[in-house]
Write a structure and sequence with these properties.
This protein is of the alpha/beta class. The protein contains 17 helices and seven strands. Strands 1, 2, 3, 4, 5, 6 and 7 form a seven-stranded mixed sheet that branches. The longest helix has 29 residues. The two termini are 26 Å apart. The model has no long low-confidence stretch (mean pLDDT 94).
């Protein structure tokens, strides 16, 4: 028994209801509303409504495993607990009172809760399989699983938009600037996302707009700010970029990031940060009012076309500034474009629609995610035996969120799937 489990039992009324509830004082208890779970300081449940004998009570409820935990937590000295109408415990082992000396009713749930519920909870908590409910998820209704996945998708989108809100505050609600930073981070994938974001934060978008049609200057700004133009070069083109950046650096008091922040190890050459920077530069050169076009996009193919760019001439036969390679086109592949849409476009579109009160944009964000192909990785492959093959990126995003935020930390009490297992057991 844990306090979280007892809160869960009280919140969802998972106590046997064949016999009327009786308080430790012998009063008949009828629960009209268990209250709203309080995740902040103070009583566990707020604004509950109960009837003791024939009297209606409205107020707060505190939950403890044992009554004596009240004293252990020093609640008898805290005025925040003076408005309690009921003490819910598993084991009633002490008489307690408020800071005003008021004694209130206690309900002991030990005799009202089935032992099988505790056994199911123990099995979930002690499971060392892929997911805690690995052996029981097949008993859960399809509707419950689907509702949980929909909730996970919304939660994942909310998490991704948290950083966007921070950037909006930093950039005084300049959506174009914020999207440019978000897009830069997405270009870095997981391994170089922080370095890409720092370059964007230290290189204002208005500088690129000032030199919009001057591709060498755009590359000089990006590669210089990324720390790749600190030396002289043997080849003419990078040497021109170096000279151009030295001028721009002094003119605008620019500060580059350390080149050592970039990671090349175990990356395919096509994913080298130098190539991604060259592609990002070309996107800046070719795009006009990119965020506005994204807001107006009606289909996934429209979005894909916005990111269909090729590197400039020098990079056709280079992966770095130093080493020449066989000539090869290095356009943004469809898979990478889909990653950009998933990690930058969808969250930006979703939060813009939410903050601007344009629900159709929130719906468009989810629609685009549903049009993207399902991701594939070890976690997603393991889910297949439990939920079938994922249909699209929205499905895989939801499954990743469920696994990382609920299954790994075993937050079964906060999961709809866990709730059904604890409530219904093996019933189908």
């Amino acid at each position: 028994m844990t306090e979280n489990l007892l809160q869960f039992i009280w919140q969802h009324r998972l106590y046997a209801s064949k016999e009327p509830l009786k308080t430790a004082e012998g009063e008949t208890l009828l629960v009209l509303h268990p209250g709203t779970l309080n995740t902040h300081a103070g009583p566990d449940f707020l604004e509950a409504r109960i009837i003791l004998n024939s009297t209606l009570w409205a107020g707060n409820i505190e939950v403890h495993v044992k009554s004596s935990d009240w004293i252990l937590h020093q609640h008898q000295k805290d005025a925040n607990y003076d408005r309690l109408i009921l003490h819910v415990v598993y084991l009633h082992d002490a008489t307690i009172s408020t800071s005003q000396g008021t004694v209130f009713s206690t309900i002991e749930l030990k005799s009202y809760v089935e032992e099988s519920l505790f056994e199911r909870y123990r099995q979930l908590m002690e499971s060392n399989r892929f997911i805690p409910c690995d052996s029981r998820i097949a008993t859960v209704s399809t509707l419950t699983v689907q509702m949980q996945l929909e909730r996970m998708l919304a939660e994942r989108l909310e998490e991704k938009t948290g950083r966007i809100i921070e950037l909006l505050n930093l950039k005084k609600n300049n959506w174009h600037e914020v999207f440019y930073i978000q897009l830069a981070r997405a270009f870095g994938l997981h391994i170089n996302q922080d370095a890409f974001e720092r370059v964007a934060l230290q290189t204002p978008l208005h500088l690129f707009e000032k030199y919009k049609n001057q591709q060498p200057i755009i590359e000089a700004l990006l590669f210089g700010q990324a720390g790749f133009l600190s030396d002289y070069f043997d080849e003419p083109y990078p040497d021109v970029l170096h000279s151009e950046y030295q001028y721009l650096k002094k003119l605008y008091a620019l500060e580059p990031i350390s080149v050592h922040l970039w990671k090349f190890l175990r990356l395919r050459p096509a994913n080298f940060p130098t190539i991604r920077l060259a592609q990002f530069a070309q996107l800046i050169v070719q795009s006009t009012h990119l965020f506005s076009k994204i807001l107006n996009a009606q289909s996934l193919s429209e979005l894909e076309d916005l990111f269909d760019v090729e590197v400039s001439g020098f990079w056709l036969n280079h992966y770095t500034f130093r080493d020449e390679s066989a000539q090869k086109k290095k356009h943004l592949g469809k898979s990478f474009i889909h990653t950009l849409i998933s990690n930058a476009v969808v969250p930006s579109l979703f939060i813009y629609g939410k903050l601007q009160g344009q629900n159709h944009l929130c719906e468009s964000a989810i629609y685009f995610l549903q049009q993207l192909p399902a991701e594939t990785n070890q976690i997603i492959r393991k889910w297949e035996s439990k939920m079938g093959v994922a249909k699209n990126a929205a499905d895989t995003q939801a499954r990743l969120q469920l696994y990382k935020k609920y299954c790994l930390p075993k937050k079964c009490l906060s999961c709809g799937i866990g709730y059904e297992i604890l409530k219904r057991g093996d019933k189908k």
